[in-house]
Design goal:
Radius of gyration: 16 Å
CATH architecture: 3-Layer(aba) Sandwich
Order of helices and strands: EEEHEHHEHEEHEH
CATH class: Alpha Beta
Number of helices: 6
Strand content: 15-25%
Largest sheet: 8 strands, mixed
Number of domains: 1
Number of strands: 8
Distance between the termini: 24 Å
Shape: globular
Structural class: alpha/beta
Helix content: 25-40%
């Protein structure tokens, strides 16, 4: 078990089968929960958008872990073939390994666990949540593809918030379809004027606000 100083960022290395994944862990003082970020296609632990959301969660006393789902070598392959970013079972497996690492290394902090997924990471987060029903207490998906979780949707028990941009019409319909297959507490929030990446002024701040309210309610 590792010791982490509170209120600063720590680079971490997470074992996953035969590889290791790089991450950034931040545990604020009096942390109430831990949110694992599951990034989308072509992104990483350095995602500016996820980092912005993580900073807001840290201010609200939630610990955060931003980590790479792929190794540098796998990213090179995926950039050429795009074969891994849509392999939801593979990505969910990496998330589960990261979750197990957190449970082991942070046991003394007594943190409840939630997932924040973006794009294809939204599908991976829900797939993993369906397998970790006794561990994962809340899920938030930003511009996500929950539909990619397939049959796992019906087995998710964690309260789930789906956030989609108002101008991201195709993804709105995908989220509505996925939500109809879920039996847990669920909500769809549509951010007016936002496109898929929430690059419009103020839209990502709205995502941060909605996610913080959701996690603060359910990561008890």
């Amino acid at each position: 078990m590792l010791n982490f100083t509170l209120a600063i960022e720590h680079p971490v290395i997470i074992p996953s089968k035969k590889v290791h994944l790089d991450g950034i862990l931040h545990i604020p003082k009096d942390a109430r929960g831990l949110v694992l970020f599951v990034h989308g296609s072509g992104s990483s632990r350095f995602s500016v958008r996820n980092k912005q959301v993580a900073n807001v969660l840290n201010e609200a006393k939630h610990a955060t872990l931003l980590f790479d789902l792929l190794t540098p070598e796998e990213e090179i392959v995926d950039d050429q073939t795009r074969e891994l970013r849509f392999d939801i079972e593979f990505l969910a497996g990496r998330l589960i390994d990261a979750t197990d690492w957190c449970i082991k290394q942070l046991i003394t902090h007594n943190l409840t666990i939630g997932y924040f997924g973006s794009s294809t990471g939204g599908g991976a987060a829900l797939r993993a949540a369906a397998e970790k029903v006794n561990i994962v207490k809340a899920v938030v998906s930003r511009g996500g593809r929950p539909d990619l979780a397939g049959e796992s949707l019906a087995h998710v028990e964690a309260p789930t918030l789906l956030i989609v941009g108002g101008n991201d019409e195709t993804v709105i319909e995908m989220n509505k379809s996925a939500m109809s297959k879920m039996h847990c507490i669920k909500k769809l929030d549509i951010v007016p004027g936002a496109t898929h990446l929430f690059e419009e002024p103020g839209t990502l701040s709205k995502v941060s606000e909605l996610a913080t309210l959701w996690f603060s309610k359910y990561l008890l």
